[in-house]
Amino acid sequence: MITVRDAVEADLPAIVAIYNQSIPSGRATADTHPISVDERRSWFRQFSPHKRPIWVAERAGNVVGCIYITSFYGGRPAYDKTAEVSLYLANDAQGQGLGTVLMQRMIDACPQLGVTTLIGMHFDHNEATKRLNARFGFQQVGHIPEIAEVQGAQRGLLLSILRIPNQ
């Protein structure tokens, strides 16, 4: 059984471990070296359960995924209703529908969070994220080809948006 809840700072080691698991594949992050818990403390403290949450998914008492939204374009006021969504799953939790569960919960929470547009940004070779975004109706609105070098290969960035209907 999966439980989804607001993350607390004690979850940070698990969140960082999951994030670091994504680095070797070269599909989910532009970081090329593992990050530390200390490097993420100030990042974690920017989140707010009432406006920009970070949630963790637990299975059998272990954190197996996280999803969060961050303010778009440095939090400038005109973009206040727009947020970027990010999702990371432990390697052994992938391909089991957890990403779908977390994304649906975040989309459902957007009206209460004051978010009317979700932005997804991901590498153009990340097929899993492409499929997940398509499942929820994200529309691709941009592609910046060959913007990053990942594991010796030039990779592009896809930008997608999902308009959140008023509820």
Q: Would you identify the regions where 5 or more consecutive residues have pLDDT less than 50?
A: none
Number of strands: 7
N to C succession of SSEs: EHHEEEHEHEE
Number of helices: 4
Q: What is the CATH topology assignment?
A: Aminopeptidase
Secondary structure category: alpha+beta
Distance between the termini: 29 Å
Our Rg estimate from Cα atoms comes to 15 Å
Q: What is the number of independent domains?
A: 1
CATH architecture: 3-Layer(aba) Sandwich
Question: Can you give a write-up of this model?
Answer:
With 167 residues, the protein is of the alpha+beta class. The protein has a single domain (2-163), classed as Aminopeptidase (3-Layer(aba) Sandwich). Helices cover 26% and strands 35% of the residues. The chain has 4 helices and 7 strands; from the N terminus they run E-H-H-E-E-E-H-E-H-E-E. It has helices at 12-22, 37-44, 98-113, 127-135; strands spanning 2-6, 54-59, 62-71, 82-89, 117-123, 139-150, 153-163. It has a 7-stranded mixed sheet. A hairpin with a 2-residue loop joins strand 6 (139-150) and strand 7 (153-163). The longest helix is centred in the middle third of the chain and has 16 residues, at 98-113. The mean pLDDT is 92.
SSE topology sketch:
Elements lengths: L1 E5 L5 H11 L14 H8 L9 E6 L2 E10 L10 E8 L8 H16 L3 E7 L3 H9 L3 E12 L2 E11 L4
